[in-house]
Amino acid sequence: MAKSGKAIRERLHSLEQHLKQENPVLVTAVQSFRTLDQVGYSTGLLDHEESFATQIPWWPMISVLGTFSAGKSTFINHYLNHSLQSTGNQAVDDKFTVICYSREPDARSLPGIALDADPRFPFYQISTELEKVAKGEGGRIDAYLQLKTCPCEHLRGMIIIDSPGFDADSQRNATLRLTDHIISLSDLVLVFFDARHPEPGAMRDTLKHLVSDTIHRSDSSKFAYILNQMDTTAREDNPEDVIGAWQRALAQEGLTAGRFYSIYNPEVAVPIDDEARRQRYETKRDHDLDEIHERIRQVSVERAYRIVGSLEKTAIHIQDKVIPRLREYKRSWRKFVLWSDAVLYSLVAAIVITGMVATGLWDIVLASPVWSFIAAVLVVVVFAFLHFRSRRFGARHIVKKIRKEFPPGPEQNRMTRAFVKNTHAWHSILSQEPVGWGHISRKRLQNVRTDTNRYIQLLNDKFTDPSGELGQFENRTPVSATQVKAGSGADSS
To answer: What's the confidence (pLDDT) of residue 257?
Structure first.
């Protein structure tokens, strides 16, 4: 039976320990991911130091992006009710800051290596990715990342990532790589713009990276675009004009849908003397802030359903998409090899027999048992050599085809690895099914899909109460790990 490597086992164990108190349903979901991994190892879709569980974010993650003067850090400090991040009109921090909860009364700042070496955080082993950008950058992890802890109850079970401003020295490839990384992992992305700069056209490059590169994502609904520091427009009483200018700029980059908020921080706001105008501004600000805070609160709930849903999606994707595609690649490879063998064997046999007959060796070989045996051995060796050459040549052809059909990334790597496994010398060319795919793998995937439905029901029991008979959510008895495991059909071997 294929087994995971030591590093990935330790990482999944650490994940389970973190989730035990937070959400027992997700703890058991980790075991279902292990079941998926067994299918991945047997078919070659996964390396033994990989797991499907590590390819999705397990913590509710909120990333805060924007220009250096857009008030990102001020917003975070206000939300946490803690002066954690440095603020100012200039770029005050050129690092990505991962903010998480701590029971200690004093906030702490830790170097980037604390994130790179800890599998519980979203930047685990990110130094390897930085090294791919430029040689030596992986060793400068502290120049890009830092970890801050805060005793704020809002942070329990959640991670907030504050990013460096896009207008400063942040156009480096390494920084953009990190930005794309956190966008992919985040459950909610808050994109801040500065209302004090009503000419968004001057920020075309920034808009392109923050908007046009994300609107076609399947998870584009997780982006919220926030025009901050709207209080600075009160003296001219033109908030609608400012909002309209930014909306037109975003529309030019392709963003025609999605939620657009306008806010400001009441603690550092510009005084508004006109009472009616002040009330109008405050009403709009409070309404939008409430919506943003509500989206933040919903992240934990949405995360749980997203993770459980990814189990079923992965199982379905493997059975309905990956395996048929892999079967097709193997069929094309088998056809190529068998036809090549037939042509080469016939050609070689014709040349050898004609030569032997012409030189009189044919009669000698037939008359001598020893020479007949030697000739048979030579034929087997030559045919075996030609066969395996055809296998390798055909495999290279199919690998090129896979790389053309799949963009660079995990999917391409998995498909390539799985196909190559089918071409190993010890696997028969006559087998029609992909290596590792059979009754046991099908059963494992079915068990995962069955358990997914059970997890959804348990989450529904935890987060919903359609009948109103169980009372408020916070008064309910939490779902235990024993409840989750009861009747589980997952094959954990």
So the answer is: 56
